Amino acid sequence: MKELLDSRCVHSCPDGVKLLGDGAEKFTTPITIYVSRASDTAIAAVEAAGGKIYTVYHNRLGLRSLLKPYKFAERGLPKQAQPTRRDMIEYYKNPKKRGFLANEEEGKNEYHALLALKGVEGKMPKAVEA
To answer: What angle do CA 32, 22, 85 make, to 5 degrees?
Structure first.
């Protein structure tokens, strides 16, 4: 999401970024993208172009640390938060929505990839049981 903000693809992201399918027929570049939410049309367009899409949950502190990591240089980046509301847990566990909790093993790999993008290493907290 930081790259989207830095490149001015989005102007602000107070609650994360939801990828929509507007202009899906013009999308031809394969990319790997991490967003907060994505529409079914957007998921289909990214995957049809040969890319991958992952929906990842961030609370306010996690989103702030992702967008402005320099503010956390002295005290370190916070741990990745898990969704707490039932509807969010179901969304991020849904493989059709490409949620990061959908496949536990794949979710761990993607979580560590996201941490590597942030520049930290850590353990994935246990998934919240619904």
So the answer is: 65
| pLDDT, tens only, 39-69 | 999 999 999 999 988 888 988 888 888 888 8
Give the pLDDT of residue 117. 67
CA dist 80 and 123 (Å) reads 9
CB burial readout 73-82, b (16+ within 10 A) else e: eeeebbebeb
**Residue 18 parent element (H or E):** strand 18-19
Angle at 98 between CA 94 and CA 102, to 5 degrees: 45
Q: Between residues 125 and 53, which one has the greater pLDDT?
A: 53
**DSSP reduced 3-state for 34:** strand
Strand-pair partners of 35: 55
Average pLDDT, integer, range 91-117: 75
What span, in angstroms and rounded, lies between the C-alpha atoms of 48 and 39? 14
CA dist 129 and 89 (Å) reads: 8
**Residue 72 one-letter amino acid:** F
